[in-house]
């Protein structure tokens, strides 16, 4: 039996709900939910626009030091894929109207006993474009 079947409908539906919850928390800067949805491990890695964190303690410290406001963003393209029952990836292109920039986000998620959690994340700026995306 192939356990790595991509995008099984039941797994994708469950993952999509968690991803949407993460997106709402990100835009609202809901730090408790963001922290909950990252895997609490010294092996968790997050690369930001101009920063990097190795381990969940560093991720939490970084978030605690950020302004207590959310930021607007429009998702331009979202590519979610589940692999079997316990692994998922999320690739997102987004537009930040507050800074007039296009960005990219990549995440690797695993299913844990507590639910889906991010184990690796990377966000970066894409090519600048002066016009509306």
Provide a descriptive summary of the structure in words:
- The protein is an alpha+beta fold.
- It contains three helices and six strands; from the N terminus they run ααββαββββ.
- The protein has helices spanning 9-28, 31-37, 56-64; strands at residues 45-47, 52-54, 74-83, 87-96, 101-112, 115-125.
- Strands 2-1-6-5-4-3 form a six-stranded mixed sheet, with helices on one face.
- A hairpin with a 3-residue loop joins β3 and β4 (87-96).
Please trace the helix and strand order, writing H or E for each element: HHEEHEEEE
Give me the number of helical elements: 3
The low-confidence runs, each spanning 5 or more residues with pLDDT under 50, are: none
Radius of gyration: 15 Å
Q: What is the general shape?
A: globular
Q: Numbering strands along the chain, what is their spatial order in the largest sheet?
A: 2-1-6-5-4-3
Strand content: 35-45%
The overall pLDDT, averaged over residues, is: 92
Query: What structural class do you assign from the helix and strand content?
Result: alpha+beta
Total strands: 6
**Helical content band:** 25-40%
Distance between the termini: 43 Å
**Biggest β-sheet: count, sense, barrel?**
6 strands, mixed
